[in-house]
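Hi Prof. W.,

I finally got the Glycosyltransferase 2-like domain-containing protein prediction working! I wasn't sure whether to trim anything, so I left the full sequence exactly as given:
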Amino acid sequence: MKAVYIVIPAYDEEKLIGQVVQDVAKEGFTSIIVVDDGSSDTTSQAAQSAGAIVIRHRINRGKGAATRTGIEAAVQLGADIVVTMDGDGQHSPKDIHAVIQPIMENKYEVVLGSRQISKGAMPSHKIVHNKIANTITLLYSGIRVQDSQSGFRAYSRHACTLLDTTSDSYEYESEIIRLIAAHKLSYVEAPISTLYTDYSTSKLHKQDIS
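And this is what came out:
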C-alpha cells in the first residue's frame, strides 16, 4: 500500500483547521501535515490537537512557501503520494480518494483537482477570475487546464522531487503547471466539489485583491 500524506497550508485558520484535520482522518488518511504559515492565532495548537503533524513558519511567507515546506516534509517522511488541500474547509476530504486514484494505478504522476469540471462548484465571479488565470497560465506554461488555481492536487513521490518551485505566494499554483510541462510529467484533471461559505469566500476575496 502506498503511503499517502496530506499537506495543508494554513494561515490564521484556528476556526476550521481542527475540523478539517479530523474530517481528513475520517476518510482514512492519518498522515496529515499542517504548515502554519506564521499565524497570529491558535492555528498550530488546533491542528496539533486534532492529530496533525505541525510545522510552523515564524513569519507569514505565503501559501506557496507553506505548501513547498509541507511537500518536502512529506517526502522526507516517506510519502509515496502527496495531496495538497486548503485549510479553510472549502475542499471536501471525500475527494481525496478520487485525486489519488490515477496515481495509485500508476497512470499519472500529477492530478489537478478541478472546480470547473464539477458544475456549480464555483461562484460565477470566481469562474471569470479563473478563466483569466487559465489563459495566463496557458501562455506561461503551454498547458491548457480548466482550473489552474485549484490548490487541491495530488503528486507522486517522483513528481515531488522534480517540482522545484520558487514562488512563495498564490502564483505557486501556476508555477506548478509550468514545471509539469518543463519536466514532461503526466497529468490529468479530476472533478472536485467545493464548499464556499461566507468565511471561505471572504478569504478568497482577500486573495484576489492582494
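The chain has a mean pLDDT of 88. Does that look reasonable to you?

Thanks,
D.
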